[in-house]
Amino acid sequence: MFDNGSFVPSSNIGRWQEANACLAKTIGNHGPALTHCRRQARQTRRLLESLFPLMEDLCRRTCPDCTDICCRRAWVWADFRDLLFFHLAGISVPERQLVSRQGDHCRYAGPAGCRLDRLQRPFVCTWYICPAQTRLLDNRPGEKRHLVSALEQIKTLRKQMEESFIRVVV
User: Fold this and answer.
1) From its phi and psi, is residue 43 left (phi > 0), alpha (psi between -120 and 50) or beta?
2) Which of 5, 32, 130, 147 is most buried, most CB within 10 Å of its CB?
3) Nearest to 29 by CA among 86, 109, 87
4) Are 54 and 149 in contact (CB under 8 A)?
C-alpha cells in the first residue's frame, strides 16, 4: 500500500483504487462474520454525526479569520481505520488519497473549506481542535464534555472495529 519513496499509504491513484477494491472484496467475502464490525461502524457514524453541528459552528466562527489554517498546513491522509470505517458504514470513499507525498497539502482543502463531506474525512480532521476552537469550547462546558466523550468513544470503537475485522479475516 505504500508507494516507493512515500510515507503516504496508497498515494498513487492506482494503488488507492486497488487498496479500496481489495478491502471491499474482503468485506464482501466475510459478509455475516463482519456483522459486529458493521455495528461498530454504525455506532461510530452516529457519534460522528452528533458532533457535526458543533464542529460546523466552531469552524464557522474560527476558520474564516484564521491566518494559519490547519487544513492547508496539516499533513494528513486516510489511514486503514478510516478506510475500514468508510467501507463498513457504506460511506463513499474519497476519489483519491488526501495527499500524494510527504509535505503536500490536502487536495480537498478549498477556499471555502473542505470539499469532502464530513463523513468522508479522516478521523483526525474531526479529532483535531485548534487553539481558537478550544478557547471557544472553554466557554461551553457541556458541549466540550460531549465532544471529549464522543471523541474518546470514537477512538475506542475505531480500534475495536479494526481488531474485530482482523480477527475475522485472518
Assistant:
1) alpha
2) 147
3) 87
4) no
Dihedrals phi, psi of 103, to nearest 5 degrees: 95, -15
Residues 116-147 have pLDDT tens digits of 999 999 999 999 999 999 999 999 999 999 99
Q: What's the whole-model pTM score?
A: 0.91
Q: Which residues of 89-115 are buried (b: 16+ CB within 10 A; e: fewer)?
A: bebebbebbbbbeeeeebebbeeeebe
C-beta separation of 80 from 9 below 8 A: yes
Task: Give the model's pLDDT for residue 7.
Answer: 54
Neighbours of 83 (CB within 10 A): 22
Asked if the model's pLDDT at residue 110 lies above 90, the reply is no
